[in-house]
Every structure is written in structure tokens, then in C-alpha cells.
Amino acid sequence: MINRILLSILGIFLAINFSFAQKCGTYDGSLEENMQEYPDFYQSLEGKNNELKLQHDKALSRLKNFKTENGIKIIPVVVHVIHDLGNENISDASIQGAIDILNANINGQAANFLSQTPPVFAAVRGDAKLEFRLAKLDPLGNPTTGINRVRSTLTDQPDPRDAVKALSYWNSYEYFNIWTVKRFLPQDDGNTLLGYAQFPDTRSMSTDGVVLLSSQMVSGGTLTHETGHWLGLRHTWGDATCGDDGVKDTPPARGPNYGINLSDFPYHAGLAPPPPITGAWGCIADSLNPAGEMFVNYMDYSNDAAVTMFTLDQNAIMDFTLDGAYDETTGASGIGFREYMWSEENVVATGTSDGFKVPTCTQEATFVVMNGAASLCQGEALLLKGNQTMFGSNNVSSFVWDFGDGTSDNSNSNFLSHTYNSVGSYDVTLTVVYDEITEARASSLSDLDLVTASSYDSIVENLIVQGTEAELMNLGASNISLYLDDGGYSVGSYWKRNQFTVDSLVGASYVDTFQVHKIEDELVIYLSDNISAPDTVFTNSDSTEYYVIDGDNLTNQDLNTLQTSEYNADSSLIFTVDYYVDYLDSIIDYNFYYDTTIIDILTFIDSTYLTASDSSLLSGADSLWSIDGLLNSSDSIRIYFGQFNIASTITISINTDTASLSASDSLMFNDADSTWSVNAFVGWVDTVRTFYGSHYYTRYNGYYVDTLFYRGDLEKVTYVAYYENTCTSSVTKEDFVTVNSTTASSNSSSYSYSFESESDLNGDWILSQSTNIESQWGFSAGENTSWQWESGTAVDGSSSIKVDAENMLIGVSTEIISKAYDLSAFTNPAIKFSWSGASVNTFPVNELVVTYSDDCGESWKSLGTIGAVDASNAGLYTTSFKPNASQWNDIVMTKTQLKDANIRFKFEYVVNGNSNNFYLDHIQIGEQTSLMISESSTNSKLSVFPNPAQANVTIVLDNIADKNVEVTLINILGAEVARLFSGTVVSRYQEFPADLTGLEKGVYFVKVLHEGDVIMTDKLIIE
Question: CA 416, CA 401: separation in Å to the nearest integer?
Fold first, then answer.
């Protein structure tokens, strides 16, 4: 039989309707929902997914060995810290601390396990035998700390939330990718999303991994929960009211638990709540699950302090993800979805094997401006902040600033203010000298480089181990103790005798007072209806035991279960047993005589429980045993007797050694109707063994066992080698600071820029670095989201500037900034520009933001925004877009605050998603009235109203007189659904009605075509 655990649970979740408040964004179908909401983003990753799959298949084809360290699977980890210079830029120590907690939690070693776990749940605690280790080699084989820091504004409410994964990503077949961010978008239910994961085998490996709030990377609880999802686990409530998580040993749960802890145990036990609580409670009767919900499980929503464990069956699902299906018949195992990750080849390639020596001096100095941009007016101060804290407390011996103007600061200050008194551009350099101690760990000293180590030590941990006594002894555990509970909560509860039966045989010939003991085999419990507790009897089909749970009185159903042929016996237990005597049992010999007329031997154990029929049976027996009262070395037989009822048959065989048998003894043996056999024993006198082959009945005192397991301590030793280094890191940012004059020197009556020369981008207009830093590990690594000069495309002249669609990195913006202008003499200063753009889908998201500065570029204020739809004015293009003369729009922007002696302008193209090319041209600065006159004479417009509309709309065409046009209506799939107008526009202003009757509700686009080209587009919503 192939035990494909996951196959039995996948179908359960296909129809789940998730309706609970979320702390976690992982549930069946969550990725698919995001794909539907952001199809453009996920479609752009298809090529990456295919590339990853090919690489993975190739790696599997050459895979020969899997590597474990002392039976532990190693999982390489990379943490991508997405930050914007705030507290979300968490330290290396915090990240390692979270990984350490994850390792303890997933292996059943949580710090709160012993104190916060009810025994009934502790009995099924799992141990995944996994260890997550930060990678020490990156995908190119270069040294790394396993922590990659990327500065991006996407750290704050990324939309789509998977967009952060495009900023920095390592092959998810080889590394467990974890991203941390500052904040997610608010949830519809008002709850705060703490993190989310991607289930195995979702066919989107370019987004595979876990995303967490940076604040949650400190404690490790949320990381443990999301890692459970990443390994294939669902929430304990199955993401539905009383749903199914597909795990046998996690009890049914009504929903997620918030704030529940050990003091609430048992929680949600039974269908009805305890008074005075009313309303819905548990999912099944308390007789089926008296322990209630497993709120201590990591896949619930209980607080970190209350969750303590995964279960054995949850571990089995993790094993399926890592190991594949196991065929119990052949012993063969398939390839797990994440199996390559812990293979020997990959563990070595990622630098996570035992004893790997971590790279040294990897910390890099960096700094930022605290109070805005690195642009300021002459005589003003710039506030700078270094990253001293990232080097560790008290590790920095030197922290020197060079401001590029001939001055420096060696005060070791991380924050400082510096005043620039001269106009110009300045390099800034920060040099840090710091001490570090790196370490390498291994379970064997031989795996460590002790030659270059400054010292080494060992870490001794006492692990909590559980199982049978034999299993713990085989592990070499210490302090092994039986752990049981009489609370009566588990379906595995049963009766257990509480003492050995010692010398209790009454009516036998003679019994010694030494430690004669009884051995129990298979137990079958039978109860009578006058036993007050426990109640509710269950039969385990895999054994002969009846499991008894709890309650006050037996129900009719219980009694029916108990009805057997032995039910009316005067005893409460029937069992099969072998009685034996060996040399440890102090054999006493008896003189005897044997009467060949003996047919049956009758005796009893404890006369207290004899019934009248039992006594009558004994009185009417036709045979008996007797002794001569003398005890000496010739006594040769020892008999043990058991109580039985009238329906029983007893067969007795007695073995003695032949050395003591006489001829008359042998004769009597042969004539007896009992079965006697002879066995020669050497070294002992008259060793006697008696066997009873039938059932018999007895009573004994007992206690009620709930959870029964053995627990012990297992010592784990890890050797650590330490390496001390003194390191220097220096960073120089060229032309980092721009100091401008307080009054602009440019004071012409107007300015016009058509970018006819490539050098124009380094003249009055200059490229500026975005606040988002592109990562070498981004999906578009090596590409630069930036304005670039474009020859042959223009609305004025022959050239323009553009943002190339092929180089757009989501979450990154690109800017051009003008020189300073003195516009104080203008009446109403304004700026005018032309643009043209196209989309690659029906829901464009990129924008052009226009701002101005009146303080030398230190801060920027809004002037206007070309929204996403207008920025794609030419409509949808599936090929590289290049506008014709009629596909340009222009606009005039103005504010009274522009009337100033020191004004700069900035154009920022913001990449929120995929788009086609975007062009900018013919920037003009001058009087508003002059710019408006030019606009009205050249600008064509398309207007649709009302919008949104229902049955009818009016279409208005401006400034396209004497042109033959077609006006069509396009749905979101790009298909034409209606032709609204076709003909020549006879005036500069023409309007006509359009009938929308019969069209479905949704988003449409009105397109105006001239000579086959789309010249104008507008969005229309039909309600």
C-alpha cells in the first residue's frame, strides 16, 4: 500500500469557503485569488517559473545522495529584509534568534512545551527532525550571511503583496526564501495580517516561500506557523467551521482560537457549552473528543506563549513534502516536492553542512540622509545616519566620516549634522573598523577547522524525548519515567491494574510467601452497569481491548457493546495468561501422592468473589490434591491454580526432570487423564512449570489511565569553533550631496526642452536615483529602471525620453530633476509637457508624478499626477509601443507657489506593475496663459459621460475635425463588442449618443482609430 498522505487531504480543501478573521494569509486558494486579482504580475513570472522547473529537473536527474546530519534534514534558508531605513531593518541577531526558535519548535523542543501542554496532547507531540540553517553560499557560490537587505518602499503595504519577492529571490528549489516587510495592506475584516506562506507544489516557484512582518521575525511563533504551511499543513480548523485539516491526531476545531491557553483546557469539549455560556461550542460530542480543541498546536491562532507543538501526523505530512510517498509493500520512496533542498549536493552547495566555516568581514558600511534628499541650499546642514548598530554592540572601534569638502569627523557618531557652505557636488565616505567573532558548528569536532579557530566550546542540550520505554532506552535517554494522567480525556484511555498479585492463591496445596507474580497479556475490559465511572466504551478494531473514556453511568449503547458470552461472569476482567515458575521464583518442593482416578483439578484464587455456583462446583468435585505436610528435598511438584467459571475447561501439563521420577511415578503419569509431559532440566532440582491454556476470571483493583507514555532526556552535544577578526569596511557615494545656490540663476521668460541630444539628460535635466535600491537578486537583476534617450520618436523635433517596458522593475521609480529656475517675475508660472504611453493589459497601474521644490531639492511638493489610465492613453498594445503623431497628450500644471526665486521640477515614473513603453517630450516652462493657448490649438480629446453609465452614454470628440475615424467599444479581454461611430468628424467639437443596451456590467474601453491607428482611449464602466 502506498501511503500518500497528502492525496487524502487535498480534496478536502477544494470547496472551502474561508470566512474567518485572519492573522495568517495562507489558506487553500489564497495564491489563486491573488493570481486572479493581479494576473499581469503573475503572468510576468511564468517564464521564471519555467526556467526554475527546468533547472530543478536537471538537478534531480543527476541526484545520487541525500545528506542528513545525525538523522536531521538540513534546510538552507535565505532571509530577504525589505526595508526603508526604519526599524523593519532588523538585525542579524534577531533573524538568527527566530531561526533558533523555529528549530526548537518544529522538533518538539519548545521552551514552553512541558509547562503549557496538556498530557493528552503531549502524547502525540511530533519531532520533524529538521534543522533550518542560514545559507553561507549564495546561488553564485559566493560567501553570504544568508541575509539579503534590500531598500524599497514596497516594505510598506506592498500591492500585490508578492511584489516584494521580485525585489530579491533565490532559487526556491534550493533555498527556503523568507521575506520580511514593515506592514501589509489592511485586511477587509480589520485584522492585522502577520504573514503568509505558499503551499508546496503550487506551480509558482518564483513566489515560493514565506513573507512576514519584520516584527514577527523576532519571536519565531509566526515563522513556525507559516513554515508549517510551507511544508504542507493547513489550519487546524480546516479553514471552515468545524472543517477538516486532513490530520488524524488533531481534534476537530470550530474555528481559529485567539487568546486560549492552558487554563481553558479542555476547550470546546462537547457540543454544548458549559453554563452560563450559550451558543455554538465544539464540533463533536465530548464522548468522542473529551479533550476538546488542540489550541496548543502551531497551526492554530493561539498566542505564541500558548502554542507548543506539532503532532506526529502533521510530521508525516511534512515528511511527504520532503521525502515523497512511501510504499509500505516494496519499501520504495518517491521524490518529495522539496527533496532536492536537503540533498547532499544542495547542502554542500549552500554552505549549510556541518562544520562549514562562515565568511568573514561581510558587514558593509552604508549611510543615508535623515531629513529628506541629499540636496540642499548653500549654508544649510545635512543630517546623516550610518548603520553602526548593524555591526553589533560595542564591536565598532572606528567610525569615520569624510564629507568631501575637506572636512571629516572621527567622533564615532552614528548620527551627525554637517553644514555645506559652498555650492557644488560632494562625495561622502564612511569608513568603519569593527571586530567580529564568527562561528562554525558541528556534531563532531573532526568536522571543524580548529587550526585557525581562536577557541572552541561545546553546547550541551537536554532534549525532551517521548515514546515507549524500549524506544527511549535504545536512544540512550536518561531520567526515563512513565508519564500518565487520570483525567480521562483521550480516546486511548483504558483500565490498568495497579499492583502485582502476590501470594493470593487460596485453597491450593501450599503457596510460599515469596514474590510469585502474574504476567498479563491481552486485556479485554467488561463492565457491569453498577460501575459509576467511566462511561462510554469503544472498541479498537486493531486489538482486543475496549477503550473506556469518561462519564457517570453506562448508557444503553455501552451495555450493548459489552454484551458477550462472558458478560455475566462474576468478575470484571477476562484475559489469557501464561503462569510460569522459574529459578527466580523461589521453588518450594512438596511431597505428594497422585491418585489415577483424578479427573479434574479445581481450586480458586480469592474466595471473596466466589458465587454460589462456584462454591457448589468446588464441593462436588471428584478429586483433590493433598499433601503429607512434610517439606524436604524430595518434594517435587509445584502447582498454581486459577479461578474459573463453569464454562471453562482447564488443561494442565506439568514438566519435571526425569532424574527424580520413579517407575511408579511414570506409571501414574501415563494412567492419568491429565496431560503430563517430561522435560529434562539440569542444574535445578525438580523445576516445575505449569501451563493453563484457557481463559479464567479474576478481579483486581485498578486505576483509569488516560495518556500513557514514557518521557526522558537525551543529551545533544554541538561543538562550536570561534574565529576572531578585525575588519574594515568603507563606502564612498560619489556626488552624493548637491549644494545649490539659494537663488536660481536661470531667469528667462520661458524654457523649452525637446531632448534632441542625448546629453540633454545631463544638462538642465538630470537623472536621479530612486529611493528604492535595486537588488542583484531581483527578477530583473542587471536591468536599470531609468529614463533613457530615444531617437526617432517625438511630438516636437525628432527625439524624446522614455521608460523602456523591458527594464521596468516593480516597486522602483525613475526620476528626472530640473535645474533651479527663478520664476519670481512670472505672473502665473506653469509647466507643460507631452506624454504617450500604452498598457499590456486592461488594468494599467503605473503613474507619472510631477512635483516641485522651493528649497534646493531638499523636499518636494505635489504639482499633479498623470494617473494609470491616462498614462496608458494609447490603449493596449501586445507589441513594443511606439507612438505616432496623434497618440500624444499634453497638459499644463500650475500653482501659485511656483512664483518663487528657486524652483525645481521633478518627473517621477512609478512602476507598480507591468506596462508598455512610456514617453515624455516637449517640456515647457512659462506663463500659464501662453502655454494654455498652445494646448487648446493642438490637443485632441475624447470624453465619455456619464461614467459609470447604465444604458446610454454620450461620446464627445474635440479637435479632430475633418478626420475619418472609427469609435469602438472593447471589453477587458481586448475583444470588440460594439462599433459606436464610423465616419468623418465634421467639426472641432462633435458629440453623439451610444446605446449600451444588452452589454454586461463591467469595465470597457472606448477607442478612437484613425487610419488604423489608435489615437485616443478612455475607460468606461457599465453598471
Answer: 9
Q: Where are the beta strands (DSSP E) in 928-1012?
A: 941-945, 952-958, 964-971, 976-984, 989-995, 1002-1010
CA distance 1019 to 555: 71
Query: Residue 937 in 3-state DSSP?
Result: helix
Which ranges constitute the DSSP H helices of 581-643? Answer: 612-619
Is there a contact between 310 and 317 (Cβ–Cβ < 8 Å)? Answer: no
What is the 3-state composition of the chain as percent helix, strand, coil, each rounded to the nearest 5? Answer: 20, 30, 50
Measure the CA–CA gap between 324 and 317, rounded to whole angstroms.
9
Residues 6+ apart with CB under 8 A from 770: 785, 812, 813, 814, 815
Range 978-982, long-range pairs (CB < 8 A, 24+ positions)? 980/955, 980/1006, 981/955
Q: Does an H or E element contain 195, and which?
A: strand 195-197
Cell 503573475, residue located: 42
Check: CB of residue 721 under 8 Å from CB of residue 510. no
Cross-strand partners of 738? 375, 425
Distance CA 638, CA 582 (A): 11
Radius of gyration of the chain (CA): 42
Of residues 201 and 728, more confidently modeled: 728
Q: Is the peptide bond before 119 cis (omega within 30 degrees of 0)?
A: no
What letter represents residue 551's amino acid?
Answer: G
> What is the residue extent of each domain of the chain?
2-8+19-349, 570-700, 743-938, 942-1022
Q: Which helix (H) or strand (E) holds 705?
A: strand 702-705
Q: Across residues 793-800, what is the average pLDDT?
A: 91
> Which of 61-65, 274-278, 444-448, 770-774 is predicted most confidently?
444-448
pTM over 0.70: no
Say if residues 742 and 378 touch (Cβ distance below 8 Å).
yes
Looking at domain 2-8+19-349, which of 3.40.109.10, 3.40.390.10, 3.30.450.40, 3.30.565.10 is its CATH number?
3.40.390.10
Scanning the structure block, which residue is given the C-alpha cell 452589454? 999
Do you know the residue count of the chain?
1023
How many other C-beta atoms are found inside a 10 Å radius of the C-beta of residue 276?
A: 5
| pLDDT for 53 | 60
Cα separation values, 605 from 210, 510, 585, 699, Å? 66, 12, 18, 10
Q: Which residues have CB under 8 Å from 793's CB, separation 6+?
A: 799, 800, 802, 882, 883, 919
User: Which has the closest alpha carbon to 314: 299, 333, 326, 329?
Assistant: 299
Average pLDDT over residues 966-995: 84
- Kindly list the distances between the CA atom of residue 238 and the CA atoms of 13, 118, 267, 838, in Å, as whole numbers in the listed order: 8, 22, 18, 44
Instruction: Provide DSSP, 632-686.
Output: -TT-----------TT----EEEEE-GGG--HHHHHHHHH-SS--EE---SSSSS
Predicted confidence band of residue 497 (pLDDT cuts 50, 70, 90):
very low
Cβ neighbours, 10 Å, residue 326: 18
Of residues 5 and 251, more confidence is placed in: 251
Architecture of domain 743-938: Sandwich (2.60)
Residues designated catalytic: 226
Check: CATH 2.60.40.1930 for 942-1022? yes
Does an H or E element contain 691, and which? strand 689-692
Which whole number is the average pLDDT over 743-771? 83
Residue 769 CA to residue 784 CA, distance in Å, equals: 10
Buried b (16+ CB within 10 A) or exposed e, 768-798: bebbbbbbebbbbeeeebbbeebeebbbbee
* Interatomic CA distance for residues 436 and 806, integer angstroms: 42
Instruction: Give Cβ neighbours of residue 622 (< 8 Å, ≥ 6 apart).
Output: 597, 598, 599, 600
**Dist CA 440 CA 428 (whole Å):** 36
